[in-house]
Give the backbone structure.
Amino acid sequence: MGSHHHVPPGTAGRGPLATALAITLAVFVLQIVGAWWTGSLALLFDSVHVLTDAAGLAMALGAATLSVRPATPRRSWGFRRAEVIAALLQAAFLLAVGAYVLIEGVRRLVTPEDVAAPGMIVFGAVGLVGNLAALAVLSRHRSAGFNLRAAFLEVLNDALGSVAVIVAAVVITLTGWMRADAVVAILIGALIVPRTVKLLRETIDVLLESTPAGIDLEEVRAHIARLPQVRDVHDLHITQIATGLPVLTAHIVVDDACYRDGSAHAVLDQLQECVMGHFEVSIDHCTFQIEPLAHVPHETELSH
């Protein structure tokens, strides 16, 4: 017995992702031209960074497209988890980039390199304008799912990189202190890595089928157990298929009288109302196996 009122995934994320991807690719082309024109290693590094983020956005767009495909007999959830996998890959890559930036920043503190600061300011500003435009497109949708959150972090990382290029270039122009580039890069890495680790941990939790954030499994168990005629709750699992789709399964032991007087269906209604409306996160998709007390010894024998 169960409730199956999950809402099919929306398509709202695909438009913003496609727009952000187009803007990011345009920024990449402009920064490559700028790196060639100025001979700036920092600007070249930032343009490669932009290209990797464009790849992440393309991955996110692909996942968003896959997630709206209908379920099939082979894939009963469709491709809903594609967004989680894409976000995991994006977060892992961002973490690797962040670690590289920190390591490279330390290296450049020790051995600073000359850069063409005036050209860096111009092309860094161009990159920043593009990044801000992409952020504006994504910001309204970033809470819609893991995939869009990861994409937002990609573009935010780009924007911070553009700011770093501009700030470092201004400091170098005014003071001649070449290590400014390395200092700013290390600060950017220190800002982006913790956010990336958080997203990485959350996506791994989904893939490991951990209890979703905002849901206390024991609180749910206790609340169900307090319902009239419920005698025990076991094999209770709450997992998450994708953003906004928690799933609950449980075995519910009820009085034998429920089967004699036909009230088992009323117990099922109470169970569904319980998990859908009493907790911080509504669990719309739930499956209950309702068992009479007399069945418990039999099930215990089978489990051994």
